[in-house]
Amino acid sequence: MASSQCARFFLQRSTQGFIFSSRTIPALLSPLLSRAHRLGPSDDEMYQRTTVSVMQKEPGSGLMIHSYSAHGFNIDGNRVLGPCVVLPPAILQWNVGSYKDITEQSVSLFHMLEPRIEILILGTGARVERISPSVLALLKKKGIAVEVQDTPNACATFNFLTSERRLAAAGLIPPPVSTALEVTQE
């Protein structure tokens, strides 16, 4: 409805000095190109697959997360199974099962590091989840900025911050197996 009103507006204005190509009008009327259209698994078969290609790694640029799956992560050629902590000098297993297990005790490692990290990126799985306010308050009190994201975005953010040589750490929980592209037979 809104796109047809918009098209009518443009058509009326084209007689008053605005000139549009013949391609503009069908694009405005298309329901697939409207702002309300959201991409879904049927729009692109690569929707659920993510890979990262590192063309050339600078020496001393820190750890890079190359890929992730429901089982774990590939960090600089090291296959890490399950949740993990990525620190500037090391990769550690993290004893959390889900975002609900992220407590003051499970993040205590991050504020004991020396040199102190600037930012902690928490990847909570397939979706962004709420972290306990007491955990966030503890990290803020210790001077550590926290970014809570879904795991795919957390991996990308960590890689970006690391490439800028920022002192960043990540606590990552692998996303669950996606069934969005599976075909069911009845």
How would you characterize the overall build of this protein?
This protein has 186 residues and is of the alpha/beta class. It has 5 helices and 8 strands; from the N terminus they run ααβββββαβαβαβ. The protein has helices at residues 2-14, 24-29, 108-111, 133-141, 151-163; strands at 65-68, 72-75, 78-81, 84-86, 91-93, 119-123, 145-149, 168-172. It has a 5-stranded mixed beta sheet, sandwiched between helices. A 3-stranded antiparallel beta sheet has the order 1-2-3, covered by helices on one side. Strand 1 and strand 2 form a beta hairpin. The chain is globular. 20% of the residues are buried.
What profile does the largest beta sheet have? 5 strands, mixed
Number of continuous helical runs: 5
- Spatial strand arrangement across the major sheet: 5-4-8-6-7
Low-pLDDT residue intervals, each spanning 5 or more residues: 13-25
Anisotropy-based shape? globular
- End-to-end gap: 37 Å
* Counted beta strands: 8
What Rg is obtained from the alpha carbons, in whole angstroms? 23 Å
Mean pLDDT: 77
Structural class: alpha/beta
Structure keywords:
186 residues, alpha/beta, five-stranded mixed β-sheet, three-stranded antiparallel β-sheet, 8 strands, 24% helix
Question: Which helices and strands, and how do they pair?
Answer:
Layout: H1 2-14, H2 24-29, E1 65-68, E2 72-75, E3 78-81, E4 84-86, E5 91-93, H3 108-111, E6 119-123, H4 133-141, E7 145-149, H5 151-163, E8 168-172
Parallel strand pairs: 6-7, 6-8
Antiparallel strand pairs: 1-2, 2-3, 4-5, 4-8
